[in-house]
Amino acid sequence: MTTLKNDLLLRALMREPVERTPLWIMRQAGRYLPEYREIRAQAGDFMRLCRNPELACEVTMQPLRRYKLDAAILFSDILTVPDAMGLGLRFEPGEGPMFDRPVRSKRDIEKLPAPDIADDLGYVTDAVRTIRKELDGRVPLIGFAGSPWTVGTYMVEGRSSRDFKTIRGLAAEDPAALELLLDKVATTTTAYLNAQVESGAQAIMVFDTWGAALAPDDYRRFSLASMQKIVDGLSRESDGRRVPVILFTKGAGPLLADMAGTGCDALGVDWTTDLATAREYVEDKVALQGNLDPATLREPADVIRQGVADTLASYGNGPGHVFNLGHGITPDIDPDSLAVLVDAVHELSPTYHKRLL
């Protein structure tokens, strides 16, 4: 077992005292980095990059060479699970992800196979092991998956959608069929995430990008319930310590209170809810991650620094804050702007922790 040299993230996620606020950035390994674009060109396309453990490791490590971050996050995609179910995932330039064989009926859903994690998703667990070896205890590694609802929208719509017309129709006409789909995805996702933990992931995050497209009661039925199943089935200890679980629903707002009751350890918060309000919603039962508006990184350095200061002040004193953006960093961001953010968190956050140590 490699000794973890920097465990700030894991301590903060467990609401333990830390010397400063730890930070990592959603999509920190991605298209805003020129070195990433070079590796993607070398791979040929996005999924070839994901399926190559050595290249996935290289991409994962790239932001850590540039910035003083407190975590690495596995380079992969939320659609690896439905791809392993045989839906024919492909990425079209300018179109995003598309499935050749979307599921549109109860019969389609019943025929979905249960992937063999080792055979069908072994390239992901191989990448986790490769990254852990390369990290050599420098910072913890975050594994992840998409929420069943978010993944399900792509499986049913067949591509990205603005109105989710097809899956909403399925929910209205045959809600039992939709619940069967979500249950199948949740079962596979739980096994997939446990395999990531077994391979070396030290924290887990579940991304629910489209949950807030649902009305509150439908959110609880179709999104939160399936995430609850995942949380209940996850391995929560590895290498002799807790494996924290982070849930993130973009646009959750007051639904954060429901999410806090799942047994997760932390919640991601997007920029539409300030952290002071989020703390009231969750009553300090869980840690919070976030939540600077990603668009702030397009602004001058002094505006970025002020955004960092405001985010830290919004959370205030006390344990349980992980600094992050409110969603993923966008491809148009100058890498130097992220350096301003990172330096500001290192400089400004210790004052919020002095009285705790």
Question: What features would you describe in this structure?
Answer:
The chain has 357 residues and is of the alpha/beta class. It has a domain at 43-64 and 71-235: TIM Barrel, CATH 3.20.20.210. Helix content is 46%, strand content 13%. It has 16 helices and eleven strands. A seven-stranded parallel beta sheet has the order 1-4-5-8-9-10-11. Helix 10 packs across helix 11 and helix 15 packs across helix 16 (335-348). It is globular and about 60 Å long. The model has no long low-confidence stretch (mean pLDDT 95).
In short:
This protein is 46% helix and 13% strand.
Fraction in helix:
40-55%
Number of helices: 16
Which class do the helix and strand fractions yield? alpha/beta
**Can you tell me the overall shape?**
globular
Our measurement of the CA-to-CA distance between the termini, rounded to an integer number of angstroms, reads 28 Å
What is CATH's topology name of the domain at 43-64 and 71-235?
TIM Barrel
Provide the CATH architecture of the domain at 43-64 and 71-235. Answer: Alpha-Beta Barrel
Low-confidence regions: none
Overall mean pLDDT stands at 95
The SSE order reads HHHHEHEEHHHEHHHEHEEEHEHEHEH
Question: What value does the Rg take, in angstroms?
Answer: 19 Å
Strand order of the largest sheet: 1-4-5-8-9-10-11
Main sheet record: 7 strands, parallel
- Residues in β-strands, percent: 5-15%
Number of strands: 11
